[in-house]
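Researcher: Let's do a round of design. I'm pasting the structure tokens now; please hold your answer until I've finished.
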């Protein structure tokens, strides 16, 4: 091959891949720090760190938000019916037969007659607190997996006969109660006397203490046998509603007409989405806002790549002119600087992915270490509802975060690389 042919072949890509060995060699050389290029290298390092932290933070926060939503949903639906059937024109006195008909509907796992009311509760210590009293049958309460599988003290065996209460662990701590102690319930809708209505005050023994893991429920819900709750709330021989649990919580729309037909009486049916609409809407808005805000970290890091490459192009003007005079095409120059900038983005994105996955997989350990070092509590369950930090990675969402990091890193290289490819070698060498 002649020398002229060799010179014209410098910038020509090889069939082995999109970048020739010469282009890869030059891109890697520009990534290595030299004394006179120290400032450019510092910008590249900060760009790498910025993309790394942006991708890792976005993966961690989205995983926590997904886990937060999933855990809240599972706990809310684990103790509340997916659908609630309430009477319209007359009290629900035939609740046993009605619950049996609703249970027979395809897709229905459980139908629970329930009496519910708000009371004031007090114990051995601490101020009185509000409580949501739910009257349920022992057999039905044992099928509430979120309660029955998380009994910390006592047992649900003989719950109906004992006529005691099952309370959450946070309520027991706040009121200084343990097994066998008396929980006093005060209802403003009490007995009517010649002197007016007097509050109903009844003390019940604590027969079981559960821990659902959701602070709001563990500190406020009290389970009472159905017959005892009917007496306490002056609802003998009737219930206020029937909670219906489905095999699939997302099938509420399909189950609604079937439940209406099975009721064989006028009823009003609400589902879990209607009852918790504002709560889950707020969670979704918070999740979207955090995604947008944290994405700006990756965008800022990509802008650092642009500034670093522009400075590199300006510093390497003489080298670019020499390569052009030796036969390198403008496309070869473009690919060299695209590879230089993209390498920073690709490495930052992949390391950020690894760091984010590692953090999410060991989030409980990280939480323990931080709490040990700081001497404080990272995750306050009384504020954030759940007793521990949840995390659930979504493969599609994680892939979109990685793709966003790669795309932004690639787009950031186009303008500086285009400027390098357009550089006139005559102008670049004129004052050399």
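Researcher: That's everything. Go ahead.
Model: Designed sequence:
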């Amino acid at each position: 091959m002649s020398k002229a042919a060799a010179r014209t072949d410098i910038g020509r890509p090889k069939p082995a891949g999109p970048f020739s060995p010469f282009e890869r060699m030059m891109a890697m050389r520009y990534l290595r720090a030299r004394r006179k290029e120290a400032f450019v290298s510092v910008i590249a390092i900060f760009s790498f760190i910025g993309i790394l932290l942006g991708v890792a933070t976005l993966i961690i926060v989205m995983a926590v938000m997904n886990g937060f939503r999933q855990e809240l949903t599972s706990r809310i639906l684990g103790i509340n019916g997916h659908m609630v059937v309430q009477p319209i024109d007359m009290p629900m006195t035939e609740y046993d037969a009605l619950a049996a008909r609703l249970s027979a509907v395809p897709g229905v796992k459980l139908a629970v007659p329930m009496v519910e009311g708000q009371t004031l509760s007090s114990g051995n210590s601490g101020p009185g607190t509000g409580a949501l009293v739910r009257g349920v049958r022992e057999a039905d309460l044992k099928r509430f997996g979120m309660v029955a599988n998380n009994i910390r003290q006592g047992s649900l065996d003989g719950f109906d006969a004992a006529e005691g209460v099952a309370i959450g662990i946070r309520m027991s701590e706040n009121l200084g109660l343990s097994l066998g102690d008396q929980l006093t319930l005060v209802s403003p809708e009490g007995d009517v006397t010649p002197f007016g209505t007097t509050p109903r005050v009844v003390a019940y023994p604590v027969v079981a203490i559960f821990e659902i893991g959701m602070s709001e429920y563990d500190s406020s819900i009290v389970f009472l046998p159905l017959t005892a709750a009917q007496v306490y709330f002056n609802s003998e021989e009737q219930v206020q509603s029937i909670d219906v649990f489905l095999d699939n919580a997302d099938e509420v729309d399909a189950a609604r007409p079937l439940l209406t037909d099975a009721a064989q009486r006028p009823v009003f049916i609400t589902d879990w989405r209607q009852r918790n609409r504002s709560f889950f809407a707020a969670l979704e808005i918070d999740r979207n806002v955090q995604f947008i805000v944290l994405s700006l970290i990756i965008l800022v890091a990509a802008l650092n790549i642009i500034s670093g490459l522009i400075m590199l192009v300006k510093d390497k003007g003489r080298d670019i002119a020499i390569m052009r005079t030796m036969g390198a095409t403008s496309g070869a120059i473009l690919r060299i600087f695209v590879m230089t900038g993209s390498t920073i983005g690709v490495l930052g994105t992949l390391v950020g992915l690894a760091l984010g996955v590692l953090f999410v997989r060991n989030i409980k350990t990280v939480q323990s270490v931080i709490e040990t070092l700081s001497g404080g509590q990272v995750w306050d369950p009384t504020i954030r509802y759940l007793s521990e930090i949840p995390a659930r990675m979504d493969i599609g969402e994680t892939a979109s975060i990685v793709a966003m990091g790669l795309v932004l890193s690639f787009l950031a290289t186009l303008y500086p690389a285009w400027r390098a490819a357009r550089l006139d070698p005559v102008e670049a060498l004129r004052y050399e």
